[in-house]
Amino acid sequence: MRIEPTTLAGVVVIIPSRHSDDRGYFCELFCEDFFRSQVADVRFVQDNQSLCSRPATVRGLHYQRSPVQQGKLVTVPRGAIFDVAVDLRTNSSTFGDWFGMVLSAENGFQIWISEGFAHGFMSLEPDTITNYKVTAPYSASHEGGIAWDDPDIGIRWPIAGPVIVSPKDASQPRLKEMHADAPVHHQEVAPCV
Ligand SMILES: Cc1cn([C@H]2C[C@H](O)[C@@H](COP(=O)(O)OP(=O)(O)O[C@H]3O[C@@H](C)C(=O)[C@@H](O)[C@H]3O)O2)c(=O)[nH]c1=O
């Protein structure tokens, strides 16, 4: 397993080692000791999965407010996504900046997104499955969102043109309209990268 820093402190790419043979490959997707010592000293409490039936489906940008902010470890076992994190930490020098990359069943890459970020993704292939582990339970009353196409953030989504979004995500506020209680202050969680 290899870890690579990104342009945003608190967002890390994890590249599991694949042991290939005639049958295919074996790889460890998550190892608690490795993760807690090399990436972030957190505990995961929930595993999520979503299916995007069609390409150009966008989910996000989502976050949860304190005290149930979520760190997320994202993996794609089928298909491909363009996965994005946006820095919402008001005390961060990269506030409002985004990082995105392709996660696919083929490349096996994972992204760790710590608390303090909004998360979203676009499916790039039909029937794409996204799995993610989260560090706090889901709470509808703590959910927050930002427009996936906020021009102030300027995410360069790989598929231009019409996208498929939920009604909720079609009417998310822009970053500059984010409610005063929404900004998430960065809490140090012993990142190692
Ligand atoms: C996120 C979530 C949703 N739900 C329910 C609420 C709703 O009825 C249904 C669909 O929810 P949503 O439309 O919010 O699903 P979705 O748009 O896929 O939301 C997800 O988007 C990505 C980008 C994330 O980062 C996730 O944390 C999550 O916010 O599932 C749960 O029961 N548990 C959960 O953890």
From TrEMBL:
Enzyme class, UniProt record, top EC level: isomerase
GO BP terms, alphabetized: dTDP-rhamnose biosynthetic process; polysaccharide biosynthetic process
Pfam families, alphabetized: dTDP_sugar_isom (PF00908)
Annotated site, Participates in a stacking interaction with the thymidine ring of dTDP-4-oxo-6-deoxyglucose, chain positions: Y138
Record keywords, A-Z: Isomerase
EC numbers on record: 5.1.3.13
Pathway: Carbohydrate biosynthesis; dTDP-L-rhamnose biosynthesis
Keyword Transmembrane listed: no
Catalyses which reaction(s): dTDP-4-dehydro-6-deoxy-alpha-D-glucose = dTDP-4-dehydro-beta-L-rhamnose
Active site positions: H62 (proton acceptor), Y132 (proton donor)
Complexes and interactors: Homodimer.
NCBIfam families reported for this sequence: rmlC
Role summary: Catalyzes the epimerization of the C3' and C5'positions of dTDP-6-deoxy-D-xylo-4-hexulose, forming dTDP-6-deoxy-L-lyxo-4-hexulose.
Similarity comment text for this entry: Belongs to the dTDP-4-dehydrorhamnose 3,5-epimerase family.
Record-given protein name: dTDP-4-dehydrorhamnose 3,5-epimerase
